[in-house]
Design brief:
With about 160 residues, the chain is an alpha+beta fold. It contains 4 helices and 5 strands. The chain is globular. The two termini are about 30 Å apart.
């Protein structure tokens, strides 16, 4: 059994687009390894292309930092700005950043992460998103990028505690 075969789509990620995204990611993994950026071509999932974002994982000792690498047009529209090239901690409050760092730390440990949240930007507080984040590792083991699929939802359609 391969590493990615043991990883499951989080049960809360019920939107069929997340299943498509997860199955694509898993299909790109070399046997027993995590897929790397070199295995992923967002053009191969054209119906999700606008919903994809990628993040660099920058490690300094035990510290992690994340930078927006790529933002699909749907993600940019949802967030209200293109943050490509910017550090996550430069785009949101320390409290919101801490929540995202905790989620991304799980992904850096090789686990998928799903959540539903309001956007952490005051001018976008009417919209939330459902997001599935998956690890990418150019060496098959050490996560150096995160790829996420983002689905916008209205505030009132968010589920609690997911």
């Amino acid at each position: 059994m391969t590493l990615t075969a043991t990883l499951a789509l989080p049960a809360a990620a019920t939107d069929p687009r997340f299943r498509t995204f997860f199955d694509y990611w898993r299909s790109k993994a070399p046997p027993g390894r995590l897929p790397g950026r070199q295995h992923i071509d967002p053009l191969e999932i054209p119906k999700l292309l606008a919903r994809i974002a990628m993040f660099d994982v920058v490690r300094t000792g035990a510290q992690l930092r994340f930078r927006f690498r790529l933002m699909g047009t749907g993600v940019v529209d949802m967030m209200g700005a293109d943050y490509t090239g910017r550090w996550i901690d430069d785009t949101m409050t320390p409290d919101d950043c801490a929540k995202l760092y905790a989620a991304f730390a799980q992904v850096c440990a090789g686990q998928p992460h799903y959540w539903e949240r309001l956007l952490p930007f005051s001018n976008r507080d009417f919209v939330g998103h459902r997001r599935l984040a998956l690890p990418l590792a150019s060496d098959g083991a050490t996560v150096d990028m995160i790829i996420g699929c983002y689905i916008p939802v209205l505030r009132e359609d968010l589920r609690e505690d997911v």
